[in-house]
Amino acid sequence: MKNPSKGHTVESFNEEMKREHKTVLQMGALVRTQIKNAIRTLQEEDAEEARKVIAADAEVNNLDIQVAAHVEHILARRTPVAGDLREVLTVAKMATDLERCGDEAGKLARLTIHFFGDRGTAPNYQLLQEVSSVAGFVDHMLQESLDAFDQRNIERACEVIRKAESLDGEFRSSLRRLTTFVLEDARTIGQFIDVVLAVRALERIGGHAKNIGGYVVYLVTGRDVRHETLDEILRDLT
Fold first, then answer.
1. What is the reported pLDDT for 1?
2. Do the Cβ atoms of 237 and 230 come closer than 8 Å?
3. DSSP state letter for 238
4. CB of 195 within 8 A of CB of 178?
5. Number of alpha carbons in the 13 Å side-chain half-sphere of residue 80
6. Which residues 6+ apart lie within 8 Å of 74 measured at CB?
7. 147-197 pLDDT, tens per residue?
8. Distance (Å, rounded) from C-alpha 188 to C-alpha 175?
């Protein structure tokens, strides 16, 4: 005899996971907006808008807390296994990474306040150009990772992981270009350090995007690829 509660239980679980899926994508959209706005405040020298970016982080934090509470509830009541458990764990891990991306966006906004606040000293415009350049690369990675999750697309997830390897080269190239300014004018050393910290924050965001790409591979295949190279991942997937 068919269990009359089985269909209802499965349907209820699916609805809960759809809600968490939507919440994580909402977090991702908010974080991308934070990053873009933080970079814009640097470009436009707008300390007041930078303060708004920092304040907006509270919304991302609230969503992170919400996801954590819902995941705890699902684990306690549903005791999911196999693919269902992977889905729950993926959502929880993604929320954590996205919350940390929001923190890095806040660091960028604080740099605007540091440079362009009441007593700030504006840096050389070309120094800030390095920040904008890396930001565009990282934003694309983050969008790709969210799309990969939304579509459960392993190919797009692997592309994010590939771009993470390229990001290391972008970071090193940026450091070399920034160093030339210090060599030409030692008075820019303080600004150089601040801008390097900004580029480093963006590199961390790229690292979180890579993590999300790895979570998508785990979600779809059940394979933990956190400590594998892209070549190793692709070799075993093909």
1. 38
2. no
3. -
4. yes
5. 21
6. 13, 16, 17, 20, 80, 88
7. 999 999 999 999 999 999 889 888 888 888 888 877 777 777 888 888 889
8. 14
Question: Which CATH architecture describes the domain 6-237?
Answer: Up-down Bundle (1.20)
The reported pTM is 0.89
Four-residue CA torsion sign, 156, 63, 44, 190: negative
DSSP codes of every residue in 116-167: HSTT--PPPHHHHHHHHHHHHHHHHHHHHHHHHHHHT-HHHHHHHHHHHHHH
Rounded Cα distance between 154 and 225, Å, is: 12
CA 3 to mean position of chain CA atoms:
42
Tell me which residue of 220, 222, 171, 223 sits closest to 197, measured CA to CA.
171
- What per-residue confidence (pLDDT) applies to 2? 41
The per-residue pLDDT of the chain, averaged, comes to 89
DSSP for 83-116, please give it: HHHHHHHHHHHHHHHHHHHHHHHHHHHHHHHHHH
Residue carrying the six token digits 């991942």: 233
CA distance 204 to 65: 21
Q: Where are the domains positioned within the chain?
A: 6-237
Q: Which amino acid is at 94?
A: M
